[in-house]
Amino acid sequence: MSDEIKQNQLWTGDYYNQGTGPNDIFDTLKEECGVFGVFGHPEAASLSYYGLHALQHRGEESAGMCVTDGNEFHYHRGMGLVKEVFDKDLLASLTGSLSIGHVRYSTSGDSRLTNAQPLVFKYRDGDLAVATNGNIVNAPKIRRELEEGGSIFQTTSDTEVVAHLIARSKKPLVEAAKDAFRQIVGGFAFLLLTNDKLIVASDPNGLRPLSMGRLGDAYLFASETCAFETVGAEIIRDIQPGELLVLDADGLHEDRFAEPQRKALCAMEYIYFARPDSDMNGSNLHSARKRMGQRMALESFIDADVVTGVPDSSISAAIGYAEQTGISYELGLIKNKYTGRTFIQPSQELREQGVKMKLSAVRRVVEGKRVVMIDDSIVRGTTSRRIVNLLREAGATEVHVRITSPPFKNPCFYGIDTPDRKELIASSKTVEEICKEINADSLSFLSPEGLVEAVGGGNVADYKGGLCMACFDNDYPTQTDFGGEEQFGCGC
Ligand code: SF4
């Protein structure tokens, strides 16, 4: 494809809007996926629709659900938002009381419908549907071994690797699933559906969030608890590392496929990904982010006139910073809510201006002011520089950047789509160099200890507060070296 055509092609999906490709305007990290499961509710499809809608921020590329009435599967998957993929008539046709659903972000160049989940298979004992959030580090190695043994794959998704492992086992389904989960390494939250069972599993480190809720007699499962609030369900608890739950005609069976390892829930869920109205590990996300801002103020106070947060994820932290310092919190940056998922890729010159499609600085708030700008992370540094420049163009006399995470230096193996290490600005530059690069007057990052204390609200008994911090400190909670066959990013 010529550069000219590339320059003018219609980009679909959030790849352009929020992707991590070198041409993307917004070099933020990409969320992973979201899962939602229902056991024992006559309106499982409708509940899933609203639950998936609440998880939409975790994946805008495709959506799907599989529902069973006990005899057969009814399922639908499509590209786009939940509201675009399903309509009233379609939902009415998805009859049954058990369901699993999924929203997905694709990795760049991989936005095919065949990878949309849940994936549905026929295996020797009947129908099987699988939905997952996360990444299996050793999936390429297992896949190669399976292919050498004659297996044929239809997708590039990790999920299919697990389905093959289950299908090849001679054991009953639950034991086969346990065996399959023991063979895979990574961060994952799995929902498996048959015509009479729902199986729920979390990796032995609990890297990806997964919670259980109740609505009357029904059990619900979701990547984030905000989905339970949406459907009026009660939060019961988080699924524990290595845990495997089986729900069938006899009710809920609590089991496990592995002993829990070091608890290591993804720190970026707290910092950036999850919705502020969700709870994880007993902490509300808005409150945790506020504490990050307060801690940031204690670690790196700077005298200024206003504090502003980069919307939406940094608003809570900015409120915390302002409360702690007594500097007034103001809406110095406004997000344009209507930047949809389809854009014409602009020229390089316009790309520099492109951040304005998503964010605007409020001139009357920042003009003539010394501004503290709170943001959650710096990936390549290009977005930070553009936002600092927005504030300067709107008349800010000083822009001091405070980042509520430690420097992001290492790629993720567990479901977050990150650029190569060499593209992560903090992997090769000092804080002073990054400060200069993003055109800020000063720059500070939250310390790892500050992050752990803020997330836990003072409960830091677990190693690293029960968090994975590998993208900051290179201390990965699992094996990551599989002889060059390991997989980064998101494998959903
Ligand atoms: S490496 Fe970073 S982004 Fe990946 S799971 Fe760990 S904390 Fe989350």
TrEMBL record:
Pathway: Purine metabolism; IMP biosynthesis via de novo pathway; N(1)-(5-phospho-D-ribosyl)glycinamide from 5-phospho-alpha-D-ribose 1-diphosphate: step 1/2. The active site is at C33 (nucleophile). CDD domains: GPATase_N, PRTases_typeI. It catalyses: 5-phospho-beta-D-ribosylamine + L-glutamate + diphosphate = 5-phospho-alpha-D-ribose 1-diphosphate + L-glutamine + H2O. Its EC number is 2.4.2.14. Binds 1 [4Fe-4S] cluster per subunit. Coiled coil: none annotated. It is an enzyme of class 2 (transferase). Its cofactor is [4Fe-4S] cluster; Mg(2+). Mg(2+) binds at S313, D375, D376. Keywords: 4Fe-4S, Glutamine amidotransferase, Glycosyltransferase, Iron, Iron-sulfur, Magnesium, Metal-binding, Purine biosynthesis, Transferase. Residues 33-250 form the Glutamine amidotransferase type-2 domain. It comes from the Bacteria. [4Fe-4S] cluster binds at C266, C412, C468, C471. The keyword Transmembrane helix does not apply. Catalyzes the formation of phosphoribosylamine from phosphoribosylpyrophosphate (PRPP) and glutamine. In the C-terminal section; belongs to the purine/pyrimidine phosphoribosyltransferase family. This is Amidophosphoribosyltransferase. The gene is purF.
